[in-house]
User: What shape does this take?
Amino acid sequence: MLHTFFYLSESRIDLSAESPEIIELVEQSRVRNAKRRISGALIFTDRYFVQAIEGPADEIDALKNKIIADPRHSQIVILADGPTDKRQFGLWSLAYSGTDTLIDDKLAPALAIAGNPERDRAIRSLKLLLTASVEQNGWVGPTIDTALD
Assistant: This one.
C-alpha cells in the first residue's frame, strides 16, 4: 500500500537554498529514496522546508520518524499523513526547487492556518505550488520504478 507524508516546517539552519550542504542533502536523499521506492519533492526557501514524500508505508514511516527527529527544522506541521491511491510525484526520487519567493510568501500563512477549517484548501494549494515549482525548474535526476506499485 502506498503512503504519503506531507509537511511544512521552519528552518533552524542558516543556509541558502543553493548552499553546498543543502545540495549534498538533496543528492544523498535522491539516491536513498530511489533505492527505497520513495518519490517526492522538497522546497527549501532559506526560511522553510516543505516536502511531500510517498511510497511503501513501512519506508515512509521510517523516513517520517527521521524527518521529525531532524534538528535542522522546528515547528513541523503535518499537512497529510496516510494512505494514497496513486503517486503525485511518481518519477521524482526527490525533486528539489530552491528559493522561490512565491512559495516562500505562501508558507507563513499556511503555518498560521494549519489547525483551522482552511486546512484542506491550504494543503491543496501547497501541493499545487510544490508541483508547479519543481516542474517549472525542469528537474531531472534519479527516478524510481513506479511499475512496482
